[in-house]
Design goal:
The complex is a heterodimer. Chain A is an alpha+beta fold. Chain A is built from two helices and five strands; from the N terminus they run ββααβββ. Chain B folds into two domains: 258 residues, NAD(P)-binding Rossmann-like Domain (Rossmann fold); 94 residues, Oxidized Rhodanese, domain 1, CATH 3.40.250.10. Chains A and B meet through β4 and β5 of A and β5, β7 and β8 of B. The structure holds zinc ion (ZN).
């Protein structure tokens, strides 16, 4: 499935400074694996040492949080957008 | 009772608008969505702003201008030159003054008819519930994770809406948490990032207009909550990308497993938020702990006597353009790939802006087998303070 992956500002330095990229994957987990295989520096920002998605990083398929779908096994279809949305705290 | 033309309209609590107030708020009054009833709701509203910084600036200005009857402001900071690029409540002449004092003056000047209560204090688990109790709506414009979790938990425990906004460089997030009993901040993000994994605001930077836009969204949502009009930004996370000039909306759900608002609550009082965010101890013993250091004065002495020192600047090229110590530039992120450019037989002094990134560089180099490498304590900021005041601070 051809999908689009949105990279947040905070993680762009670890993803070749791109704001989004197009890739092929059947599930959210596959898409993220494909991303971190290309940009290995991203891995520690997205996953804990034991391979779980970090709790301050949310992943959405279109507008839905994958925690309320099938998590990393969530299937994706052509044209879907996966967004990585980390917690940010700036305000001053 | 007949209404006589010319007398101010009365609310159920007897608050009325004076002739001058009717003129001041006329652009609200002539809209049916606000009208006299809405304006009196604004006059009776009590809103507490946490933080008088980048988000607090447009927020305070718009809420004061709109006639919110009582505005509370919590902040303990002092106006600094670096604030003026975005914190539009402040003037150059305010530099050095407490923010709440400068903000109160500015807002009272804008609207003398409202009450402004200032709290020059750090928001803590000991004072938050007491401070929040008097207010109807809390607006979170802070700049750090511990305070954000504290504001969230206090709002959930007291059942008050939390109008949330946060920013990073070119990107913003906004939503209304805990309204009415909807998802909270912990439902969105159960835990904060560990320290060190996200750049601090000083390293991250922010485009000046961004907090203006996000703070204005918070002001708008606050006013809508007061008026009980429109569709509040609750259950939705608004993402704003200023570079692409694009707004997106994600669904925000209440997490049944949320420890404070879920089905089995494990948090029933405020906790230690510094500890929760993993930064307890780090402040007392900075990350440079255990890293070999050299002070700016020691470095100056050694350079003056002609010692052969290799100055390694691990900042970014755009920072080097602001000011530099004539060091050799290898940004921290490139260090692992460029380590072969360094000569391990020479003495190396690494520096950055404040000494934090260069501490990481020193740690990395030591692990890579470099024996003679030191961190410039306090970075270029300390160099400016202790050795050469002509070096600008940023
Ligand atoms: Zn919750």
């Amino acid at each position: 499935m051809a999908i689009k992956l949105e990279i947040p500002t905070a993680l762009r330095p670890f993803a070749g400074k791109q704001s989004s990229l197009d890739l092929e994957a059947a599930t959210v987990g596959e898409a993220l694996k494909s991303l971190t295989n290309t940009y290995s520096d991203l891995r520690k920002h997205l996953y804990t040492d034991d391979g779980r998605i970090r709790s301050f990083v949310n992943i959405y398929v279109n507008d839905e949080d994958i925690r309320y779908l099938e998590k990393e096994n969530t299937p994706i279809k052509d044209g879907d957008t996966i967004s990585i949305v980390p917690s940010i705290a700036g305000g001053r | 009772m007949p209404i006589i033309t010319g007398t101010p309209a009365a609310s159920e609590t007897g608050r009325t608008l004076s002739k001058e107030e009717i003129a001041r708020y006329s652009r609200h009054l002539i809209m049916p969505e606000v009208g006299m009833e809405g304006q009196l709701k604004l006059a009776r509203a009590q809103v507490l702003m946490i933080g008088a910084g980048g988000l607090g600036a447009p927020l305070g200005l718009y809420l004061a201008a709109a006639g919110v009857g009582r505005l509370g402001i919590v902040d303990f900071d002092v106006v600094d030159f670096t604030n003026l690029q975005r914190q539009i409540t402040f003037s150059t002449s305010d530099v050095g003054r407490p923010k709440i004092q400068a903000a109160k003056e500015r807002l009272a000047g804008l609207n003398p008819g409202i009450r402004i209560d200032t709290y020059e204090t750090r928001l803590t688990s000991d004072n938050a519930l007491e401070l929040f109790r008097d207010y109807d709506i809390i607006v979170d414009g802070t700049d750090n994770f511990p305070t954000r979790y504290l504001v969230n938990d206090a709002c959930v425990l007291l059942g008050k809406p939390n109008v949330y906004g946060s920013i990073f460089r070119f990107e913003g997030q906004a939503t209304v948490f805990n309204y009415p009993a909807g998802p909270c901040y912990r439902c969105l993000y159960p835990e904060p990032p560990p320290p060190g994994l996200v750049p601090s605001c000083a390293e991250g930077g922010v485009l000046g207009v961004l907090p203006g836009i996000v703070g204005a969204i918070q002001a708008m949502e606050t006013i809508k909550l007061i008026l009980k009009t429109g569709e509040p930004l609750a259950g939705r996370l608004l993402l704003f990308d200023a570079l692409a000039m694009r707004f997106r909306e994600l669904r925000l759900r209440k997490n049944p497993a949320c420890p404070i608002c879920g089905e089995h609550r494990t948090i029933d009082k405020l906790i230690d938020y510094e500890e929760f965010c993993g930064i307890r101890g780090e402040e007392a013993a900075p990350v440079t702990n255990g890293i070999p250091e050299i002070t700016p004065r020691e470095l100056k002495t050694r350079l003056d006597r002609g010692d052969d020192l290799y100055i390694l600047d691990v900042r970014e090229p755009h920072e080097y353009q602001i000011c530099n110590l004539h060091g050799n530039l290898i940004p921290l992120g490139q260090l692992p790939n460029r380590v072969n450019e360094l000569d391990s037989s020479r003495e190396i002094v690494a520096h950055c802006r404040s000494g934090k990134r260069s501490a990481d560089a020193v740690e990395f180099l030591r692990k890579a087998g470099f024996q003679k490498v030191w961190n410039l304590k306090g970075g270029i900021l300390a160099w400016s303070d202790e050795v050469d005041p002509s070096v600008p601070k940023y």
